Amino acid sequence: MSKDLLIVSILILSIASCNTWVAHGQSTFDLLKFGAKGDGQTDDSQAILNALEALCRASDENPTLVVPNGHTFFLRPLKFSGPCQSKNIHIKIMGNLLAPNRSNWGGCAIIWFHLFNITGLTFDGTGVINGSGQGWWSRVIGTGDCSRIPTALYFEKCDGLQISGLTHINGPGVHLSVVDSQDVTISNIHINSPEESHNTDGIDLTRVIRANIHDSDIQSGDDCIAIKGGTQFLNVSQVTCGPGTHGISVGSLGKNGSEEFVDHLTVKNCTFNGADSAVKIKTWAGGKGYVSNIVFDHIQINQTNFPIYIDQHYMRSKEQPQAVKISNVTFSNINGTCVGKDAIVLDCAKIGCYDITLQQINVTSINPKHPARVRCNNVHGTTTDIISPRGHCI
């Protein structure tokens, strides 16, 4: 080897060692080594894109990008796309990620942090994801030419996705959205936005197949968890929703006559504290498709409005000849207190809801002058062991 070639080789190795180190056979990348300042003011967007590119090129078994503790990284809206070399990619958020506020958003971007087509992604840590959403909450549309309020974190086509440990606050819109992905686990996360933060769903799932959400607490200004069209084989357990959040909802489905479906959903051992609703299915009149094989079981209700709700006239949409078909839905072992009279509302379209089961229900009103009641239309099924509310209309 010539002297000049040797010098060049040493320089290349030196540059690489500045940005990564190897521990137990895996590459570990430190975001600060890619030029990020982490001072909460400097735009670190390009630094994290560079770091993600290096992470994605790594060919070892489990390359890891560390967003270090003790720093706040200010990021403008960005998108990073795979595929990556490794089948297991790890992004470890130990510090904080900070979004721009509305007045400093710039352009039309409906997603803040968008990760696309990355298989085997683990996105975890003890850090905080701050969506800086305060300026968006009183708006019904986005900014500039943008018609939508932005989503904070958006994972698209990320099969094998695992998200855990993080705290998400102040989303401009949806805090965490997963789309077109399979075999997803979301666990031990904390979402906290105030009740007045309108349109801030905690978690949205769209066309997600085989997913588990568990051991998490969500406080937001809209749905705690929204299960959108095309989602199948979802289990939700040990999730606490509220106060202020709208509950765990299937839908809304079928807007503008669209065809959508959700099936094989189990929501079990979940708690709703001071929520606007608890377990809910909502569809637009005139929609097509179906909702089937749904179980809501062992649900604790604490001073929550609309504990059990099927709404086939969502947003007061008027009755139409067709509707999303709802069948094989079980509400069981649901106990606690509601703040309004309507403990059970089953408002089905004229085509009817079928195989609806209510069993072991005991929900009472906190207002003795207005005892809990049942309201329903066009519902077919069975009821057993209903302690409260009295009466039934199935």
TrEMBL record:
InterPro entries per UniProt: Glyco_hydro_28, PbH1, Pectin_lyas_fold, Pectin_lyase_fold/virulence
Compartments, as annotated in UniProt: Secreted, Cell wall
Pfam families named in the record: Glyco_hydro_28
GO BP annotations, alphabetical order: carbohydrate metabolic process; cell wall organization
A GO term for molecular function: polygalacturonase activity
Family: Belongs to the glycosyl hydrolase 28 family.
Protein name per its UniProtKB record: Probable polygalacturonase At3g15720
Source species, domain of life: Eukaryota
Range of residues in the leader sequence: 1-25
Main location: secreted
Keywords, alphabetical: Cell wall, Cell wall biogenesis/degradation, Glycosidase, Hydrolase, Secreted, Signal
